[in-house]
Amino acid sequence: MTEVAPVTDALVGAIRNRLPELRLLTDEVDRESYRRDETAYLRTGLPCAVALPTETRQVAELVRLCGEFGVPIVPRGAGTGLSGGAAGIEGALTIAFTAMDRVLEIDGDNLVVVTQPGIINAALKKVVAAQGLFYAPDPASFEICSIGGNLGTNAGGLCCIKYGQTRESVLGLEVVMADGTVLRTGGKNVKDVAGYSLTHLIVGSQGTLAMVTEATLRLRPLPPPRSTLIAFFATLEAAGAAVAGIARAGLSPVTLELMDQFTIGAVDDMQGLGLDRDAAAMLMVESDLPGSAAGVEMDAARVVCEAAGATQVVQATDPQEADWLRQGRRSAFHALERLGTARMEDVGVPRARVPEMLVAIEGVAAKHDVRVGTFGHAGDGNLHPTFVFERDDPNAEAINEAARGDLYRAAIALGGTITGEHGVGVARRDYLELQRGADAIRVMRQIKDALDPKGILNPGRVLA
Ligand SMILES: Cc1cc2nc3c(=O)[nH]c(=O)nc-3n(C[C@H](O)[C@H](O)[C@H](O)COP(=O)(O)OP(=O)(O)OC[C@H]3O[C@@H](n4cnc5c(N)ncnc54)[C@H](O)[C@@H]3O)c2cc1C
Q1: What is the pTM of this model?
Q2: Whose C-alpha in 16, 38, 309, 334 is 20 to 30 A from the C-alpha of 345?
């Protein structure tokens, strides 16, 4: 650390000199608040400074200066990430994109919006909705996370089953590369296969390949309010069978979410929704089809759920009730957090193997004698088993480490993934090779070295 200080002092001086108008936080108390993202258990570092640029030109200059001084950069959105991707690195410069939050253009004819990355997902949705348009990607954290962070993690959420992850809504980016070059990777074209798709490579790379300074995102006409149905099941397997049945029936609900019994109880304690707390699992199914088509889709989903053994199927009677139910599902993690120290995971499996994954999760929890609440995007095969420890349990982190290792191995054994949407970051880095294999890691490393030869862009994230 004593080695680092002179270099970083010189960097801070050079930034002040070249970008006198830039907001640069150097007080320790300010820097401390950029130490962590939402992955509280990770060891993190204190940034040497935090820059809050408002324009691409400033970002490019910051990157060039960091390259000159050999100081790493951590790009950061709203800091709600769950893999440590935006957590501080000791002595690095954190570039927080929160002040780059302007919507630059809404093009209704081409159904695209061009925006800076710092805007909060919910704010973007609201701005385009005012023009009858819809930005689909919908992480449960949509009210607190930024578009830049969503691009960094290729965020998923509650409507991927119909509209895909963030990447599916990205047509082009403006990025700053590791040497300060400003590059456009695409634009408003819906079809564009000219060369390698740098857009797709950069989305999901967690700030390790380039920094996003502008995004051209796909919009849709604003769909009507959703019809919402919830179904309760006596076993996890029956709920899993309903998930598979909905896909087999060719239905395309906008939401197909699951909560297990522990989560149902926690959510009901917090929200008082009157959920069936004796049920082993609950599915929430939603349609955003227009007019009577939504009713047809909901009826078909009801038939599938009943055939799979649903003990109760309830349809929301009005949009307000549907909102409460949706809010209940969104609040699952916070509801579990009220019961102790909660550690959320993010495994994924091919959809049809959801029942087996649910059984495996229960097995891992039993083996490590830890409470687990599982909820998530069952329609995508993406589950968030959340281990809950007593707040004063001195062994909590050690047990969590062992349990999540077993969880990842179980997911991989089912042909699944260690992370469906939260990203590898630092938290899952040691398990990446287990899933992808040594050859894939070597190729990823070659890409990283080619695009960031000095290794200054978010080093140690995704790849060791
Ligand atoms: C309660 C809760 C619920 C959640 N639900 C979901 C969910 O349903 N689906 C889901 O996918 N995630 C979910 N998350 C995780 C998190 O909200 C997402 O990963 C989100 O995309 C992070 O956005 P952020 O702005 O907070 O990014 P940050 O945490 O600040 O950063 C995330 C990553 O993106 C990189 N990054 C940020 N900005 C840029 C940029 N401009 N250029 C390049 N890289 C950049 C960072 O370096 C980091 O690696 C949830 C989190 C919480 C706390």
Answers
A1: 0.96
A2: 309
| Amino acid residing at 314 | V
- Residues 257, 246: Cα–Cα separation, whole Å: 12
DSSP for 39-107, please give it: -TTS-----SEEEE-SSHHHHHHHHHHHHHHT--EEEESSS--SSSTTS--TTPEEEEGGG---EEEEE
Whether 283 and 258 have beta carbons less than 8 Å apart is answered as yes
pLDDT in tens, 78-117: 999 999 999 999 999 999 999 999 999 999 999 999 999 9
Q: How far is the CA of 154 from the centre of ligand 1 (A)?
A: 8
Residue 346: phi and psi, rounded to 5, are -155, 40
pLDDT in tens, 204-245: 999 999 999 999 999 999 999 999 999 999 999 899 899 989
CA of 38 to the centre of ligand 1 (A): 9
> How far, rounded to the nearest angstrom, does the alpha carbon of residue 85 sit from its chain's CA centroid?
11
Q: How far is the CA of 84 from the centre of ligand 1 (A)?
A: 10
Reduced to 3 states, what is the DSSP secondary structure of residue 313?
Answer: strand
Cβ(157)–Cβ(421) under 8 Å? yes
d(CA 192, CA 77): 28
